[in-house]
Amino acid sequence: xxxxxxxxxxxxxxxxxxxxxxxxxxxxxxxxxxxxxxxxxxxxxxxxxxxxxxxxxxxxxxxxxxxxxxxxxxxxxxxxxxxxxxxxxxxxxxxxxxxxxxxxxxxxxxxxxxxxxxxxxxxxxxxxxxxxxxxxxxxxxxxxxxxxxxxxxxxxxxxxxxxxxxxxxxxxxxxxxxxxxxxxxxxxxxxxxxxxxxxxxxxxxxxxxxxxxxxxxxxxxxxxxxxxxxxxxxxxxxxxxxxxxxxxxxxxxxxxxxxxxx
Amino acid sequence: xxxxxxxxxxxxxxxxxxxxxxxxxxxxxxxxxxxxxxxxxxxxxxxxxxxxxxxxxxxxxxxxxxxxxxxxxxxxxxxxxxxxxxxxxxxxxxxxxxxxxxxxxxxxxxxxxxxxxxxxxxxxxxxxxxxxxxxxxxxxxxxxxxxxxxxxxxxxxxxxxxxxxxxxxxxxxxxxxxxxxxxxxxxxxxxxxxxxxxxxxxx
Lengths: 262, 203
Prior knowledge:
Chain B: It is a multi-pass membrane protein. The complex is a heterodimer. Chain A is an all-alpha fold. Chain A has eleven helices and no strands. Chain B has a single domain, classed as Four Helix Bundle (Hemerythrin (Met), subunit A) (Up-down Bundle), CATH 1.20.120. The interface between A and B is medium-sized, with 33 and 30 residues.
């Protein structure tokens, strides 16, 4: 209690609804955190498998080849994109759970980084959902649209979801930076997970080259810009969910001890 | 490794935490670069003549100069870390400054090299070799800029926070990162500049 920073810690918890029981205080946190893997599984099935985006239709396919895809698989794409737009929104509650944990990583830091994470993660929903609309539009009247329009819609979807990567980089870097300020002997987010998060976010910079190529490793279907980058992103979701889940009971215990002592 | 079991806010972190953390960043980076190197070798085997012909248009003198610059700069960082371990603050700052100034030479050299390529209308789309050339050296250059920023940060940080408990962890983490930038160039140089080189006899 002699350490003024320790006093701030307790004051923080008292400021945040000391009348609430621990159960009420942490209610919904786990549910929100669990939305990460739910999003991931649903997105892979809907957007990836049904929507024919895992792997993507190659950028060097002709307009006729692409039109053939929409005209043959329109029902799968409609179902897939409808699901992607539904489950894509789960990225938001997942981001909120991380935000709540981040606010308690280091009570002596301000909340700029955690707030930025919340905004960046929340806005990640935009490219996920908006790009799905383009593919959905292509599957809506595939026989009435000409092949070049269908090609344009498919291209536009991919250009949006790939090139809006930086809105996802921001929360990834923020989680890493905030996690590294943790002064606990055993940090909520281990150092390796923080550095992985920072690295993964920055690795998306390879997407800068995506619009310049229709084949090869940098194209949307390329081994680097598709397979590596998407696996890196999916792994990030699982890793951060795991440590967010593990952090919640630890924070609940910390709060209980501090309120009990106050 | 001893850790405090107290609620720990304000407690000093073990410096090895920082080092082991940055190692994850470095390993992940090396894996991706390793994949790029493998991709280069596989694609090269399909169009050997194009790759060798293009490799011969690169100035290996500049590539070698870059290698010497980065290794020398890396050596300065080794001396800086040693100085930090021995508590010699002035020597630490001087070695970091030396590493930065020598390292800046790499930026100048790359500017000359890129300028020459652009002047000859050579870009990523010229052929597959140049796609790899610009991708590998460009990605490396971004890492170089990050490293220069880290060196500048640690120099300024040492002015006020050299006594901070995590200072040694920070400088060792920066040192490790800077060595990774060296290491990548040590691999990029033979792959791009030397592998396809056909030595011309001296006149």
